[in-house]
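Blinded run. Sample ID left blank on purpose so nobody reads anything into the name before looking at the predicted structure. Input follows.
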Amino acid sequence: MEVKGVTAAGTNIYCAFDQLVPIGEVKPNPENPNTHPDEQVEMLANIIAGQGWRTPITVSNRSGLIVRGHARLLAAEYNGETDVPVDYQNYESQASEYADLIADNRIAELADMDNTMLKDMIENYIDTGELDLEMTGFKTEHLEALMTQFHEPGAEFFEEDPNSGDNQPKVITCPECGHVFEQ
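Blinded prediction complete.
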């Protein structure tokens, strides 16, 4: 893949962008309802450092504020970047700009993860030793739980519920993202 640019700190940029902008000139939207925990910012910073920029920060031409990429800006600051790739977008109104900001934060949350397919993808394509498995966005302990949840094809793990006496599927909830993995 052709590198479309490199930041001053040497991070490859693989995504389309309009301009490399000094980090201090990129303004977060103070009304962004999403917050970004330190663990998320650190993980994203590691992914950007390891994989390069795959998505620019989107800034509104109308307001001059970030619409998409608040966490990417924080990750860039964490990595000591001095400039970031920015894509400038036109919005016809504040309502359309804020709707895009909210949708960007919300849409990914609505997806369902097929854990069997995820496990197979990691085993077949990613777990080659070529890169750190945390480039997937999962911490090592969550990957271990995912990879060991299926011990044999078609087999299920059951844990007896002491209150009902019934066998119930064992469930693990990821403490990082809240995703529920049934075993």
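Unblinding after everyone has recorded impressions. The chain is about 30% helix and 20% strand.
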